[in-house]
Structure prediction request, 555 residues.
Amino acid sequence: MRLKPTELLILFAIGAAGALIGDAGAVSAQTTRYLDHSVPFIWESPIWFPALVGLGTVSVGMLRIRLGPTRPGFDLRLGIGAWSAVVAIYSITSLAGDDGTASVALVVTLGMITACFLADVPGLICGLAAAVVGPIAEIVIVELDLSEYTAHNDSLFGVGLWLPGLYFAFGVAVARITELMVDQE
Amino acid sequence: MRLKPTELLILFAIGAAGALIGDAGAVSAQTTRYLDHSVPFIWESPIWFPALVGLGTVSVGMLRIRLGPTRPGFDLRLGIGAWSAVVAIYSITSLAGDDGTASVALVVTLGMITACFLADVPGLICGLAAAVVGPIAEIVIVELDLSEYTAHNDSLFGVGLWLPGLYFAFGVAVARITELMVDQE
Amino acid sequence: MRLKPTELLILFAIGAAGALIGDAGAVSAQTTRYLDHSVPFIWESPIWFPALVGLGTVSVGMLRIRLGPTRPGFDLRLGIGAWSAVVAIYSITSLAGDDGTASVALVVTLGMITACFLADVPGLICGLAAAVVGPIAEIVIVELDLSEYTAHNDSLFGVGLWLPGLYFAFGVAVARITELMVDQE
Prediction:
């Protein structure tokens, strides 16, 4: 099974949209700051940020397809709920104010609750893969001096210690959304 | 189909109760402030505030009935969960501290998640109607100098920019509660 | 019906683990402070704290069994979600910053939502019992000068006014986890 071009485009679009909203919150709340302003910005984000998250969303969707059969049944509410859960958790990372124990515990447990509602085993694997790859990509971005996390949000090699929890929810949600899209074919 | 007097009374009571709790949080957190003290107060609210929200709750219930058949099945937990979700989101608007992007994104996505759990199409319409009418009513109240939202919570013509998200959840929840009440007849 | 030794051990372990995580958040956020340092500490907690919560978890499990038949059906996601919900609410008590009306309303309504998803009537009784006994135990601990809640988190005889809401969620979650364990036998 393969994802069609329109499906890839939808995954890219909803990932980029979530990234723009969440990142606008993070920049406004001064959780993150962009150091390089040589590229065009959309809202509060340099253009490469939503692009990267969009590509990450496509990648998780493709990973989900390869990991095994998807569950049947289409319900738009599952897809909207999954997307909303990730943007909600993203916003909470901005509002929490730091990456102390309580913030990290809240983000991780919300990610786990999201998985309990949405994930099958392949979805869980997508979540875990995103929880590893996503923060590594952001650590590289910080190392390249393109952006930085502020003082109380940089405990994980310069990025927020809650970031794996957020990416876990992201991976789980994208896997579920991918299942819904495939069911529609 | 029509709502019976006792049902209208229940809708009024649960709306007014939620308003009193949420408003006490908003006043204590200094998100909102009442400027006119010429009327009796209940807890932290002038008596007209819970009355207006109670009437708004009744109105949404009546709107829901007119919008089409209600879903069968009574589960008290759905009603309590719906009411609790709105009060929880209301409380979050007080705790967030401002109506910046992250706060608005959190409130709106929580409203969307509430709708994903509870709403059918008529319920969605109730949520959208409440998201338009509720903030307009509050803008009028602020314009009449009866109350004000504080400096960082007044981006939407003097009221919180997260207010439509909160009223959306309110409309969706009241619609679902109305369905449960009608099923009990 | 009786809980087996391994089941009692599992209940103790997940209770103690949740207590250690939540308490580390509370101590870091300076919601609570330990005054007595004469005993060994694990992470941020004196050894008796996770032990007491572990015993409380076992007690709620035993209470649940006595209150009537448990629901059939095993789903690990229900157990993980229940545990996560309590740790999430615990973390929110640390992040809220005080025990004002909005914080208390948020914690209580989140506890109620948790119950709407998880509780049957015996589970509700477990939640209510925990909401009474848990805070009383903590008030005694504070009276013994072993720990204290900070100035804005001590409205309930020296402990957080949100504490009954947190323990209510705890009792409901433990009851549901107990049902899942018994179903596995």
Q: What stands out?
A: The beta strands of chain B are 32-34, 41-42, 45-46, 147-149. Chain B has one domain: 5-183. The helical segments of chain B are 5-28, 48-66, 76-96, 101-118, 121-143, 163-183.
